[in-house]
Structures are given as structure tokens and as C-alpha cells.
Design a protein that fits this description.
Layout (H helix, E strand, L loop, with lengths): L9 H5 L4 H30 L8 E11 L2 E9 L6 E8 L5 E9 L6 E9 L6 E9 L1
Antiparallel strand pairs: 1-2, 2-5, 3-4, 3-6
Length: about 140
Amino acid sequence: MSTDPAQPTDLDQRYGRTRKRGRNERLILIISAAVFAVVLVAWVVWAGLDGSKPMVEARDVAHTIVDDQTVRVDYEVSMPAGEQASCAVQALNEDFIVVGWKIVDIPASDRYTRAFTETVRTSLPANTGLIFRCWLT
């Protein structure tokens, strides 16, 4: 058996461990990492950083249980001036099951943030009312 580190041993030859193969494996690893990084950066730019879409934000302010079939929901909607939106207002019972649902159209305005109150009819007694989601129309 050779003791010179520059000379491969019988085991190295038998299992294909050579300097050239080690360099090739490192090169493949570097290329794979670079491709992964390029794909990741492209996805981040495509998915989140384009910023071209106007956003609608809704915030629950309060809710009032009027009776066993009615909930009043107070909320604020913030969206770009001149845009129209729709919001889904929902009522939930104590098990977090939707017992009332209403789609509300929000007209365009020159104000960014506006407050609204909506009454939602329920099929069962509710214990809360809130905004599910808003979107531009």
C-alpha cells in the first residue's frame, strides 16, 4: 500500500474516489445551488415584490349581538381612492361555525379609510361578527 498522499490507494481506485471526480461533484453542487438561488429570487420577485396591485385592508372595530337572529358588525375598510370593493361579513357561533354571511359592496370614494356598519341575519344564535375578507371589484 502506498503512503504517498498524492497517490490514490487501492480503495480509492476501487470506489472511484479521485481528485477529478471530487472536483466534478463540487462543480455540480455549485451549479445546482446557483440554479436554486436564481429560481428562488425569481419566485420572490414574481410572488411578492411586484407591488402593482392595489391593496384592500379591512379591520374589525366592534360587533353587537342584537338578538338571536341578528348581529351588527362595525368595521373599517382602507383602499386606494377611486376603487370599488366588496367585503364578506360573517357571524360565528361559540363553536366558530358560520351562522350568518353577507356580501357588501363598498362604493368608490376619495377617502382612503372609511367606517361602515352592517347588519347580518343569522340562522342560529351568534356570539361574534367580523369581516372575513375584502377584495377590489
